[in-house]
Amino acid sequence: MTGPFWSGEALDWRRNPAEYDAIHFHEDDLLDCGWDTDLS
Question: What's the CA gap between 26 and 23, in Å, rounded?
Fold first, then answer.
């Protein structure tokens, strides 16, 4: 996931890891959001 300082110069995170961040959702993180299902 690109981070707030992503310049777009390195499309591979391994070339410039400082421009990339990570995101992770646990299985139960979105149970209460109430969003409609788009894909299943």
Answer: 10
